[in-house]
Design a protein that fits this description.
single chain, mainly alpha, two-stranded antiparallel ribbon, 10 helices, 2 strands, 3% strand
Length: 227
């Protein structure tokens, strides 16, 4: 005979409904903490604020905060990851508007450079302060935060290689090198010339990255081609 489930279907449905409702409430509480932190960053122009300030701004409890975050560092990390994920999505959407794989890659390079550049009279402490501290103290967290962006660039490099526009080989490693080049150049704000900093243009960044990719040798037999 067919075994009869001990738990009635109505009970499972009730539990599932309750779980969904609890998850939604938790997501809403987390978002209020994140929004409050964003507001404080915008007002202060720095990440130098306390957990208590976040709690008061969100009109939630300290207990609730620590139910969702280990501390201020984890909350700032969440904001940093969200910002990078939104940037990656913007780059992917822009790339999808192009039919040519090489133009897709160029557009992604130039857009990432523009995203990464310091904005005139706009404080970006998550990137100018927190990201720098993160890079020194928690490099693995930085790498994890950049994974969505790395996935986009890896895919675009694979597509360009498949079309014959660039040599094939090690797309993920190339993507990492391209991203690091772009972001370092953006934060460096150009090279000294006559005592003045001359910012790089997005076209210069593309020409440099393309030259490196197009001139690179195919991965050696010892290298993992999927890297």
């Amino acid at each position: 005979m067919t075994e009869v489930s001990e738990e009635p279907a109505w009970r499972r449905r009730a539990v599932e409904r309750s779980t969904r409702a609890a998850k939604l409430r938790a997501e809403q509480r987390v978002q209020r903490f994140l929004d409050s932190a964003q507001d404080l960053i915008a007002e202060k122009g720095t990440t130098d604020f306390t957990v208590q300030e976040i709690v008061e701004r969100s009109q939630q409890s300290l207990r609730s905060f620590y139910q969702h975050f280990d501390g201020k560092h984890e909350l700032l990390l969440a904001l940093f990851e969200d910002a990078l994920a939104r940037g990656a999505l913007e780059i992917r959407d822009a790339a999808l508007a192009e039919d040519d794989p090489l133009r897709r890659l160029r557009g992604a390079v130039e857009l990432l450079y523009e995203q990464s550049r310091p904005r005139h009279q706009v404080e970006r402490p998550l990137f100018s302060d927190f990201a720098q501290q993160l890079l020194v103290r928690h490099p693995t967290q930085v790498a994890a935060a950049h994974l969505p962006l790395l996935a986009v660039f890896t895919e675009l490099i694979e597509q360009a290689a498949a079309s014959g526009a660039i040599p094939a080989g090690r797309p993920r490693r190339r993507a990492s090198l391209v991203m690091q080049t772009i972001m370092f150049a953006a934060q460096g704000n150009g090279v000294p010339a006559g005592g003045h900093a001359v910012p790089f243009t997005s076209a210069e960044i593309w020409e440099f990255c393309y030259g490196g990719i197009a001139g690179s040798a195919v991965a050696s037999p010892a290298a993992d081609p999927a890297d």
